[in-house]
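Report of the visiting student (M.T.), summer placement. My assignment was to run the structure pipeline on a short list of targets and document each run. The first record concerns Transcriptional regulator, AbrB family.
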Amino acid sequence: MKATGIVRRIDDLGRVVIPKEIRRTMRIREGEPLEIFVDRDGEVILKKYSPLGQLNEFAEEYVDSLHEVTGYIACVLDRDVVVAVAGAPDKKFLDKPVSQAAEEVMDKQETVIIEDPGAHSFCEGCLEDDEDCKFSVQVLAPVISLEGKSIGAVVLSSQELDDTMGDLEVKLANTAAGFLARQMED
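After the run finished, the structure tokens were exported:
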């Protein structure tokens, strides 16, 4: 663990304020849920809660199926990181932060097709010259919870320059996103 040098007191209602700098760095938004863990040494650990992260095994199986059916790279993102990937090296994408473009799709709650050869549209942290991270076309479909909040996205991507995506890929991504959202209800 890394010390921040920041000390906060617990108020009379048992609350602790997380400093703005830490919230910004950790991308913690107002109203966002946090998981609380206690380790053997008595340390309290706060971790961002990811509803889609709870479906990790299920999400992996789903993207495997999407990849097998479409031949495209398939991913599931939560609000912060890539939680499942098929058709591409796991170490390149898994647990990588999501991009600004993916965040915008989740915020707008609309499915989009991005046609931009060489784009790094759904995750950050790839090197500019890394061919595994460059895509010619992508579909991003937000996963919307029962409460109407966007909790992640399903992504279909291609690295082939002559590939196009249309209604079929949009429907597949939307179906996957809807199915994952329904799994959150159970």
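Residues 36 and 46 are 5 Å apart (CA to CA). The chain is about 30% helix and 25% strand. I thank the supervising group for their guidance throughout the placement.
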